[in-house]
Request: fold
Amino acid sequence: MTDVYNLGFLKDTIGETIVSTYDVDGHPNAAPMGIAVKSNEQLIIRPFMSSLTYKNLQTKRCAVVNVTSNPELFYRTAFKDANPDGNLSAELVEKAETVDAPRLRAADATVEVSVAETGSFSPERAEVLCNVQLVTASKALPKVYCRAQFATIEAIIHATRIKPFLMGDEQEQERALRLMELVEICRDIVDRTAPNSRYSEIMADLTQKIHLWRKESEGLR
Ligand SMILES: Cc1cc2nc3c(=O)[nH]c(=O)nc-3n(C[C@H](O)[C@H](O)[C@H](O)COP(=O)(O)O)c2cc1C
Reply:
């Protein structure tokens, strides 16, 4: 079996992945999550306790950690309303082999995991230790490094925190403003290196979302 280190997971380094789970009713869910490696056999997920991923990990006790660098997948799993029907599209996933969880059909590699124990990472985030059950990898060809691709994923990460921070106290709103500046830097990279691409479309959508959240948060004041 391929091991997690062969997929690029490194000690003391967070690897950005998409974690897919089923809810209690068997509906698939997927969300980008950073993964830390404890050993070849154990991975750590640190979900916000407010996330559906956390809830599903607690009820189903398993998940699939999907390896991809496709911004489209990060976007559609971070913001479910970016899918054609407003929910995570069912055709994006199929059932995993060894655990009761879905996996992303388009992933370059998958790690099927079961939950070993759950602790606390911070007041808002849990730390979920997972046992590796199965590692699979496709024979994907090497991909050229593309600044726009990685700038888009960075912008998506920042955007997932902007809305909650905008709804928070003064200090959190400051953090939201800083994140908005970072999104602008990412947008500049995308506009310069990949204008008229799917990446620039995602950046335009994100900008529109951020604009709406700002209006919403101003309405609350
Ligand atoms: C690259 C990337 C990494 C992320 N890492 C985490 C993480 O480690 N923990 C977390 O709770 N949210 C993380 N997020 C944010 C969640 O993916 C986002 O809040 C998502 O909407 C949660 O979806 P869910 O409620 O379906 O679980 C990350 C987002 C991105 C784009």
Q: What stands out?
A: The pocket of flavin mononucleotide is lined by residues 16, 29, 31-34, 46-48, 51-53, 74, 78, 153, 156-157, 160 (CB under 6 Å). The helical segments are 52-60, 71-78, 147-166, 170-193, 198-220. The chain has two domains: 4-137, 147-220.
